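Quick one: Transcriptional regulator from Marinobacter nauticus, structure tokens please.
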Amino acid sequence: MNVSKIDLNLFVVFDAVYTTRNLTRASEILCITQPAVSNALARLRDMFNDPLFVRTGNTMTPTPVAKNAIGPAREALRLLQTSVSANQHFDPATAEITFSFSMADLYEAGIFPRLYPLLSGNAPSVRLTNFKIPREEVPSALAKGQLDFSVDGPAFHDEADICRYLFAQDRYVLAARRNHPSVRSTIELEEFLSLDHVGLLQDREQPDQVEIAMERLDRRRNTLIHCNHLLTIPGLLMKSDLVACVPYHFCKHFDLHWCELPFETPLLEYTLYWHLSADQDPSHRWMREQLINAVQGMRATVNLPR
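--- reply ---
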């Protein structure tokens, strides 16, 4: 193969088809016509002397040759992008840019109120948007540039081209209204189980850490209300004798009493995900720095109940 005759644009098409498994979607991402994608794929097939993708229904399934080639191809594109981006300068004071996130409101409530004060004075035209999409669609959305970041637990998105960073932690505490008749500075397990609870149910297939701890103890809470949104819970607690297990760094922003749980739960971990292709982008790196600075105080340390 004569390297001097290789068209690097072909590998951009190769990456798009591999990511989307669909010629039409690849053409939409690249803003070119589908015949242009088909033509580029034909040239790639000649170059590799392999079909690279075979049609299975509406899906383009990669061949073993394509699977072996995608890693080096993406690394070459990344190195090229890095070299081009190295001299680019990002000025947050003048930049007009929107960063898109996908995260549940549990994470949104912990991050955005801390992040915005860092941006409001130094980056007045930087905007943030958050929309929740199914976890299985996140890697593709990051690869396509539809998302800049996802925030989730540590056990998701283990693809090789997805970067990740554990940047904050929290723990669950028991929250109730002030002067609650049964919640004081400490609480025993039996008293905890006797209370009426509000639960957070954001994913039927992924129970929260409190439910996992209850299952390990082979005990059940008396949960009267299951909420889909974390921000609903403080209003319910302040107007009733209901209690709820919520993240400490969320609870402390409301006029609520809290105490430590009478059992251990795994930590709530905030993991930031982004696509490898954006790793060296100056604006992307700047936003990651702001996110890390915003939540640097969010650690799962134990404080005296109040």
